[in-house]
Design goal:
- With 237 residues, the protein is α/β, with parallel strands linked by helices.
- Helix content is 35%, strand content 10%.
- The protein starts with 10 loop residues before the first helix and ends in a 13-residue tail after the last helix.
Length: 237
C-alpha cells in the first residue's frame, strides 16, 4: 500500500498530489513527525485531520483560497482548516476579526440588512461551498508556533497552490498578511482574482484588513464569471 492510500483525503487531491506523497521529502517529513510522536510530543491537529482543508474542499470544487500559516497551538483548537476552530471552542482573536469584517461587508453590500453573528468558530460551511482554508504548515507542536516550519510542509502546500492555479479557473485568492502574499506570488493574475490585505490579527487588522471588503468582492468576481457565490453567513457545516 502506498503512502497516498493511507491518507484521509478526497480522491481528487490524492490523485493530484500523488507524486508529492511518494516523494523523498514527504518520506522525510513522515519520519520527522513519527520521531516527534515517539518522543512524547503532542502534535496538532490530530492525524486524521491534518489534510482536513483538502478533504473538505475537493479540487474540482475550489472557488476561493484563504491561506494561513500554522495550525492553532492549543488543545482542541486546530482541526485542519486555517483560522477555523471546532464547534464549541472559543473563537480566537483573528477569527473574531474575520467575522467582524464579514458582518460589516454584508451590512454595507447587501440590501436585506441581514446581521451576521455566528455562534460557532467552525468554517466547515465555507469549505463545503468551495473555500480552501489552507495553512502553509499543516502540523505544529503544542504551545510552539512555527515548530514544524521548514520540514517540508511549505513545499507541499506550495504544490497545492500551484495545482489550483494550473487546474482551476477563476478562483479568488484571499491573501492576508505578508506571508500569505508571498505564498501567492506565482498565482496567475490573468486567470484568477488575487485580493490582498493586512492580516486579521489584532496587531494588524486596523492596517488594512478592516474595510477590505474581500467577501463581497470575491462574490462579485465569482458572479461575473458565472460561478455560484459563497454564502459567507453559512460558516458551520
Amino acid at each position: 500500500m502506498s503512502a497516498v492510500d493511507r491518507v484521509v483525503l478526497h480522491d481528487s487531491w490524492k490523485e493530484a498530489l500523488r507524486n508529492e506523497f511518494e516523494s523523498d521529502y514527504m518520506a522525510q517529513l513522515r519520519e520527522f513527525l513519527l520521531e516527534e510522536r515517539n518522543a512524547g510530543k503532542r502534535i496538532f491537529p490530530p492525524s486524521k485531520l491534518i489534510f482536513n482543508a483538502l478533504d473538505s474542499c475537493p479540487l474540482p470544487n475550489v472557488k476561493v483560497v484563504i491561506i494561513g500559516q500554522d495550525p492553532y497551538i492549543f488543545s482542541g483548537q486546530a482541526h485542519g482548516l486555517c483560522f477555523s476552530v471546532p464547534p464549541g471552542v472559543k473563537q480566537p482573536p483573528s477569527l473574531m476579526n474575520i467575522f467582524k469584517e464579514v458582518a460589516d461587508d454584508l451590512r454595507e453590500n447587501t440590501s436585506s440588512g441581514e446581521t451576521f453573528s455566528p455562534s460557532s468558530g467552525s468554517l466547515l460551511g465555507w469549505a463545503a461551498q468551495g473555500v480552501l482554508l489552507l495553512n502553509a504548515t499543516l502540523t505544529v507542536l503544542e504551545g510552539a508556533s512555527g515548530s514544524h516550519q521548514n520540514q517540508g510542509w511549505e513545499r507541499f502546500t506550495d504544490r497545492v497552490v500551484e495545482i489550483v492555479n494550473e487546474q482551476c479557473e477563476h478562483v479568488v485568492f484571499l491573501l492576508w498578511g505578508a506571508y500569505a502574499k508571498a505564498k501567492g506570488e506565482r498565482v496567475s493574475r490573468d486567470q484568477h482574482c488575487v485580493l490582498t490585505a493586512a492580516h486579521p490579527s489584532p496587531l494588524a487588522a486596523h492596517n488594512g484588513f478592516f474595510g477590505c471588503r474581500h467577501f463581497s468582492r470575491a462574490n462579485n468576481y465569482l458572479r461575473d464569471h458565472g460561478i455560484e457565490e459563497i454564502d459567507w453567513r453559512r460558516t458551520d457545516a
